[in-house]
Amino acid sequence: MTINYAHRGASGYCPENTMAAFRYAIELGATGIETDVQMTADGELVLIHDENLKRTTGIDKLVKDVTLAELKALDAGSWYSTDFAGEQVPTLDELMELVKAHHIMLNIEIKSGIVLYPNIERSVVDKIKAYGLEKQCIISNFNHYSLAGCHAIDPQIRTGILYMEGLYRPWDYAQTLGATALHAAKYAVTPEWVKEAESKGVIYNVWTVNETHEMKALIQAGVAGIITDYPDRLHQLLTGKG
Ligand code: G3P
Ligand code: MG
């Protein structure tokens, strides 16, 4: 069945990339979580989309310049709603505990395009192995050098090529990088391409898909995963209630 990846958790209903968003996604039927990983000044892997803390915590500093202790003192929920006041920026460890307990999939998007975090690839790969989550995790990244780096560290760790548009025969490119998946924007996929990729052993996980009619078309096309802010909508379709 199509994997139902909650984009930054159930970000249609909760502040993105918080434990509240991840827990609620599971309640709504998500069978996977997509999250964004950055690194603190003291080398901790933390879950936040932006390099700068301003949008989701109000503090105008870069993640790379604060320690985990400083980050943990910030409120990552109030920007969204006072109902979520006190939500913290989670660590990758916290999410991995949840993923392990619920036997769901985890798409770890490493953010290393704007800030180049030292050895973030090895830190993430080591963390996946420490939790024994090799079969449940896939690393994605818009920075394909970083993806190739993950593959070089351990070819057993699965990687997905993030892109928006215009990659020619992306399944061939995936094979060049040793990647198992194409993480394509929803407008960069056709049913024919899904089939051609499949014949080469390469799967599609498509983002960010929030409309039911788009979800239906992608399920029909045979994509492996859909990344959505509304995992409840996809759950309803996949369980025949949509
Ligand atoms: O991984 C899919 C999607 O999350 C990529 O874009 O900006 O939401 O991280 P962004
Ligand atoms: Mg992302």
Automatic annotation (TrEMBL):
InterPro entries: GP_PDE_dom (IPR030395), PLC-like_Pdiesterase_TIM-brl (IPR017946). Residues 2-238 form the GP-PDE domain. Gene3D superfamilies: Phosphatidylinositol (PI) phosphodiesterase (3.20.20.190). This is Glycerophosphodiester phosphodiesterase. It comes from Paenibacillus septentrionalis. The lineage of its organism: Bacteria, Bacillati, Bacillota, Bacilli, Bacillales.
